[in-house]
Amino acid sequence: MDVILAEVEDEIAGMMCDSYGNYLCSAAFQACSPRQRKRILEKLSPQVAGIACDKRGTHALQALIGLLQLEEEQQQLMNAIKSRVIELSMDPNGTHVVQRLLCCFFPSVVDWIYIAIHDRMIEVAHHPYGLCVLKKCISQAKAPGKHQDMLLKQLARHAMDLVQSPYGNYAIQHALEEWGGSCCQPVLHKLEGRMMQLSIQKFSSNVVEKLFCSAPAEFRNRFIAELVESEKMSVLVNSNYGHYVAKRALQMATPEQSRALLEAIKANLSILPNRRLRVKWEKVMSGQGDFDDDLQDAVSWP
């Protein structure tokens, strides 16, 4: 391998981006010793961002990342990338490199990725490729600790912005799925008092449904109570998105809340101009929605 490296090491970056050379590089990396990989990394470092963003180079670089087992060599590559984390995260090819780093490198080495995502959370969460990196960060920070705390703080700080975003809402939903409602209480506090507003919007209504399923019982009951007690129930009734939120609320509510919610809906149906939507609501009220059998008695009329 030393003889081969001596011949190609100055051209290794170009070979990784070549339609055929990238396959050769991926195979050669597997045969290299740590000492030889260090030589390759030294040659790659100035051009690593360009390789990561190349449609062929990204595959060869990901193959190399999976082989770097020593903290020293991981840090060597991270040093070449750390100032370009956000740029790579929002690139269609570079995003896969950043996600690969999160999966393969030691948590202490990928600190730079979490710091960058923390500092520019909104920008990343509003971008389709950036969102993929943020979701991977959330998944990799599943255990309580420094990285989870960093992300949770920013998710809570920007919760209202994120839940109404076509991409950002998925970040909040993913955190609820991966960490659970109890862990995400800082986010829940930020959303409390806004249930009606969020229930009638396209993207945030999905988050509200997720909240009803994931939030601890005391939060869920308060969230549903906001809908029952709202003076703007006519707005919810007249919303296609609100229809799905109400169905989920009825599935998760206590029997008393279910009856109160149905009463509030019934009181506003007479002023509903949309006939098709009225039919949907009537099915919900008659217990013909997607409810479990043991919930029928709670939502049926006397």
UniProtKB/TrEMBL annotation:
SMART domains: Pumilio. One of its GO terms (cellular component) is cytoplasm. One of its GO terms (biological process) is post-transcriptional regulation of gene expression. Residues 1-292 form the PUM-HD domain. Keywords: Repeat. One of its GO terms (molecular function) is mRNA binding. Pumilio repeats lie at residues 7-42, 43-79, 80-102, 190-225, 226-263. The keyword Metal-binding does not apply. The keyword Transcription does not apply. PROSITE patterns: PUM, PUM_HD. Pfam families: PUF. This is PUM-HD domain-containing protein. It comes from Symbiodinium pilosum (Dinoflagellate).
